[in-house]
């Protein structure tokens, strides 16, 4: 791996980690398009590029989540009871998501990624106020919601914040608590999804050297190293910003990344 590639991966990890701490999105929604660009430049087999980008991105979230959640916890922003209610469904869904992704070709997977991100951005940007009486659902509803978050996050290689943050704010959870709680949810999503990507990618023809299933280890190590350093910085900044500005930043970053992935697909 040349110096330029190392610098690019470190810069990408820094940006992804900062965004993960700031927005509670695990960094995956930002990392996947950039990793896709780098893997394309390295001439990895086209049919594997998006699968490997998603798997590698998801694996980095194990490290980013632990770094950012500590900073959010120190601000009292993590709703641990909500984490406990969503986690069982998330663990199941995050294993299933990569299996679904393996059945799709690269173009279809890019379309699914782009559409989900654009939908999530729109939900966050709309100025609708939730009903004052609306609350988080009871245990069965939270189990089902955790499963949905896990499946989609495992499918597109993200920490699930693009679903969990809009879901929690729709249920009248304060945006800063939604971001902190979403950061904590990133670890079970990433752990189960990473194990799934190793299992379903094991022995796949055409994988480059130093791959572990669909995960490209050199990229994982460099991105994780940079992301854990910047995630706490983003988390601290999140608690100093107005709610609406945080929502707008979240939405417009996601729109830009959705546009790239849809353009790549077509």
From TrEMBL:
Subcellular location(s) per record: Cell membrane; Membrane
Main location group: membrane
GTP-binding keyword on record: no
InterPro entries with a match to the protein in the record: TM_pro_TauE-like (IPR002781)
Topology within the bilayer: Multi-pass membrane protein
Superkingdom of the source species: Bacteria
Keyword Membrane: yes
Transmembrane intervals: 6-36, 48-66, 78-96, 108-126, 146-171, 183-202, 214-234, 246-263
Entry's family note: Belongs to the 4-toluene sulfonate uptake permease (TSUP) (TC 2.A.102) family.
UniProt name for this protein: Probable membrane transporter protein
